[in-house]
Amino acid sequence: MVTQGELAPVRNHPPATATVEDYLVVLYVWERDGRPAHASLLATQIGVSQPTAGATIKRMVRDGWVIVEEHKVLRLTAQGRQKARSVIRRHFIIERLLRDILGVPWSRLHQEAHALEHVISEETLMLMEEKLHHPGTCPHGNPMPGNEMAVAQWIRLIDMKAGQQGVIRRIHELAEDTPDLMSFLEQRALMPGATITILEVQTFNQTMTVIVNGAQVVLGLAMAQSIFAQTALMER
Ligand SMILES: [Zn+2]
Ligand SMILES: [Zn+2]
After folding, report:
1. How high is the mean pLDDT of the chain?
2. Which ligand sits nearest to residue 141's alpha carbon?
């Protein structure tokens, strides 16, 4: 009798752990956005120490998920990229289910989905995707891998000028990781679908004042980098 091991002499890379999946997602998003992926930045984004990130990256290199280029810049391998896309798809579909079917508060979706995304089976996921009519974005407006063009026209608030109007469409993936920020946005109804007008940009103060659904809100410029709107001009 032939055992499984004998049938597969070329062993596949080990399955990605939840930690590895998290790293892969950040690297994928940076690559998509054209940002260089430095190992040191990865530690900050994930919220771990440099040595911890270093040890994980070492394992990821060993297992074929990433390669380290000059100046410690990380690059996804084809297998790493494919894995990241599948994790993001899982995450977004779970967020959609939690929001559209179960009505979970918008600011909590990311954390809840994050806990579930590593364990759900592909079969269940496909059923969910069907039930949700194959959504193109997550409830925060981020594009499903392969659907990037659908969001390409939306511009960041930081690139809008005083007096300009638009409709909020997207809060960047990596901002979803900050629960306080998401609660702040939800409390002020600064979510996809909200109408926004830029009132004033105070560069000296690193803030901008906007009107959202008729109420005045002051935003830090760093936050304004993560929020995207469809401007009135583009809607025509
Ligand atoms: Zn999320
Ligand atoms: Zn999301």
Report:
1. 91
2. 2
Instruction: State in Å: Cα 222 to ligand 1 middle.
Output: 19
Q: CA 231 to CA 196: how far, in whole Å?
A: 9
Q: How far is the CA of 95 from the centre of ligand 2 (A)?
A: 6
Whole-angstrom CA distances from 19 to 49, 188, 208 are 14, 32, 36
pTM for this entry = 0.87
pLDDT digits (tens, 9 = 90+) for 217-234: 999 999 999 999 999 665
pLDDT of 2 strictly over 80: no
Q: How far is the CA of 73 from the centre of ligand 1 (A)?
A: 25
Distance 92 CA to ligand 1 centre (A): 6
User: What domains can be seen in the chain, in order of their start residue?
Assistant: 18-76 (1.10.10.10), 80-150 (1.10.10.10), 153-235 (2.30.30.90)
C-alpha–C-alpha distance, residues 197 and 5, integer Å: 62
